[in-house]
Design goal:
Layout (H helix, E strand, L loop, with lengths): L6 H27 L2 H24 L8 H7 L5 H16 L14 H20 L16 H32 L3 H4 L2 H26 L6 H24 L8 E2 L9 E2 L11 E2 L11 H17 L9 H7 L4 H12 L3 H18 L8 H7 L5 H12 L3 H8 L1
Antiparallel strand pairs: 1-2, 2-3
Helix pairs in contact: 1-2, 1-9, 2-4, 2-9, 4-6, 6-8, 8-9, 10-12, 11-12, 13-15
Length: 401
């Protein structure tokens, strides 16, 4: 098989092969762990690897020799209309354990499918009807047409915005329903969204720069874009494979409008099991119902020291009080004037301060006390303590000494 090794082709070959390897590894991981998000990431890494293939194979001599040239012309390597939807659904599958594609979701893939259909039509017409180049008479690969490149990256930008909006809505929900919200915000999600944005920004930067430096629009000049793209691809592949995001909070939300976000039970299959968390409030601000439930919540938390459970959720509290999560959420938001995460963290901080007052810090480490009181990370403990007291734990100990 023809492959002319050189600095241009060889560097992209490394990125291409690594991408294919990691896409296979992610696929195996998805099958082994039954984690649907790894299927999406595997597909994304695979398509990104194909994206750099034309430049790798072009510098390897494939556009200059037959039958490789026809293979390059009639094989769509750059699936720009698929990349955006895949990263969007990957985000949803990471954050929502009950996420699955609906029939309407398949419409997101329609532009990509239509493009594949058009490319197949070109091949059938040229090879079997016209029997020579008709659509490729100009000897230009259709994957590189400006309309396709620009619309493809616009599509990626749109889906990046949707993914970001979905994540922000998730953040708004998670502080209302989980006492370990910091752990469930998942640094990996922020990192790969930033990496995906970098892919878009690199394309935009080269497009603008080529106006002032036309050499960047040449075949060799564009190679630098694909090299930078492959570096970002490699980062997503390596860190994505090693990430261990496991979300246990099931929910339902709409990205395109301001409809309520719903918390679902772990086995929710019908609308009857949904609870509106984000929008429901008691009709009266000073309702006796608020005072009643606030008293019950305070008594239960303090008596059973529920705050010591680092993964305490709104649903756990609701079950113990034999009510639904919506009532507890409304009470905490209106009665305590804070979200569920901050409310439980305040109880934990009060427990920590009581431990300090009892001199426990002389017999144990600060982190050990924090763990005993329900925190499960040093960063979360320090952040919550500073928010509650205005000082760091060490500064607080110096003050009370």
């Amino acid at each position: 098989m023809l492959f002319q090794f050189g600095s241009y082709s060889s560097l992209l070959l490394i990125s291409f092969t690594q991408g294919i390897i990691y896409s296979i590894l992610l696929l195996v991981k998805a099958i082994r762990t039954e984690d649907k998000s790894n299927y999406w990431l595997s597909f994304f890494i695979f398509l990104c690897s194909l994206f750099i293939a034309p430049w790798m194979l072009g510098f390897a001599g494939w556009y200059d020799n037959q039958p490789y040239r026809d293979f390059m012309f009639y094989t769509p390597f750059q699936h720009l209309f698929f990349l955006g939807p895949i990263i969007f659904f990957y985000t949803q599958s990471l954050l929502n354990p009950l996420f699955k594609l609906s029939k309407k979701d398949f419409l997101h893939f329609l532009p990509g499918i239509l493009y594949l259909f058009v490319m197949m039509s070109f091949w059938i017409y040229d090879k079997f009807i016209f029997k020579t180049y008709y659509f490729y008479e100009d000897q230009a690969d259709k994957d590189f047409d400006n309309w396709y490149q620009y619309s493809g990256f616009i599509s990626m930008t749109i889906y990046f915005s949707l993914s970001l909006r979905y994540y922000f809505k998730y953040k708004k929900l998670i502080v209302q329903v989980a006492s370990n919200a910091d752990d469930l915000l998942f640094r990996w999600i922020r990192n790969y969204l930033f990496a995906f944005l970098s892919m878009i920004c690199i394309r935009l930067t080269f497009t603008i720069a080529s106006i002032f430096f036309p050499v960047l629009d040449s075949y060799q000049g564009t190679w630098w874009f694909f090299l930078m793209f492959s570096v970002v691809l490699y980062y997503i592949a390596v860190t994505g494979y090693s990430n261990a995001v496991i979300s246990k909070i099931a929910f339902k939300l709409s990205v395109l409008n301001n409809q309520p976000t719903y918390l679902l039970s772990s086995n929710a299959v019908t609308e009857e099991t949904v609870i509106d968390i984000e929008h429901e409030t008691f009709e009266e601000t000073n309702s006796p119902e608020i005072a009643l439930w606030k008293s019950k919540i305070e008594t239960l938390i303090q008596r059973e020291k529920l705050y010591q459970n680092p993964e305490l959720t709104l649903t756990d509290l609701a079950k113990k009080l034999e009510t639904n999560a919506s009532v507890i959420s409304k009470t905490i938001n209106q009665g305590f004037q804070m979200n569920f995460n901050d409310c439980i963290n305040n109880y934990r901080i009060e427990a920590v301060k009581n431990s300090f007052a009892n001199g426990d810090h002389k017999k144990s480490t600060l982190l050990g006390i924090a763990y005993d009181c329900g925190f499960n990370s040093k960063a979360t403990f320090n952040r919550a303590f500073k928010k509650n007291t205005g000082t760091t734990p060490k500064e607080y100990l110096n003050l009370i000494s």
